[in-house]
Amino acid sequence: NAGVTQTPKFQVLKTGQSMTLQCAQDMNHEYMSWYRQDPGMGLRLIHYSVGAGITDQGEVPNGYNVSRSTTEDFPLRLLSAAPSQTSVYFCASSRPTGAGNTIYFGEGSWLTVV
Amino acid sequence: AQTVTQSQPEMSVQEAETVTLSCTYDTSESDYYLFWYKQPPSRQMILVIRQEAYKQQNATENRFSVNFQKAAKSFSLKISDSQLGDAAMYFCVAVSGSRLTFGEGTQLTVNP
Q: In 3D, which of A22, A48, A14, A86 has the Cα closest to residue B100?
């Protein structure tokens, strides 16, 4: 099925642990991005990528890093988890503006850091 | 910089009535898209409607329609004949190039 696949859906981490949230899309989209959504709030951009080998920081990049070695995959790494990183994380993909784009979202990854 | 503002944190509507959710945006780009996404408690992001900035005609999808005022940078969502299943958080989103900018969201309650 075409779409954005995020794993894991739920994860509990201890403070200081590291982990990787996986994101994959099979639509050959150039643009991919990661967001976090805290309770009662909108989505805030963590990192984004405009193509394989190209990444850039969003508004809340600290504590996370990303890589884009292929068009399909865009993993998000938490380097040393902190309770402030407890949130729901969304991956999204799309084509460039003007190409009839729609934003496709993964189903979200619920992360709790204790 | 690109910003999106939803000035109504919460709205409520009676079932079968009409409700309008407000959104204003600011962008320096000439080529952009605007979207409304619905997020139910499951947190899934569901596309409601989209509008290309170069189109003057307002987008419509069944009971959902927008009032796109480009000069005023306004993009409101009208929901007609509201149903219980419309209850959700609604996000206004502006997209230009690779950049997606979300509003803070409006929590819509539908009363039976």
A: A48
Chain A closest-CA separation from residue B112 CA (Å): 24
Give the pLDDT confidence of B94-110 residue by residue, as tens digits: 988 778 889 999 999 99
For A96, the token pair is 């460039």
Chain A residues in contact with B104 by the CB 8 A cut-off are 41-42
Q: Which residue has the tokens 């509008």?
A: B51
- Please give, rounded to a whole number of angstroms, the shortest distance from the CA of A67 to a CA of chain B: 16
Bridge partner residues of B35 (DSSP): B50, B93
Nearest to B91, CA basis, from A41, A60, A28: A41
A1 has a chain B CB within 8 A of its CB: no
Compare CB distances from B98 to A31, A43, A90 and report the shortest one's residue: A31
Residue % of chain B over a pLDDT of 70: 100
Mean pLDDT for B9-32 is 95
Q: Residues with Cβ < 8 Å from A20, sequence gap 6 or more?
A: A75, A76, A77, A78
Q: What are the tens digits of pLDDT across the range A4-32?
A: 999 999 999 999 999 999 999 999 999 99
Closest CB from B43, B91, B99 relative to A88: B43
**pLDDT at residue number A5:** 95
Q: Quick one: tokens of B23?
A: 């959104």
The helices-and-strands tally (H runs, E runs) of chain A is 0, 11
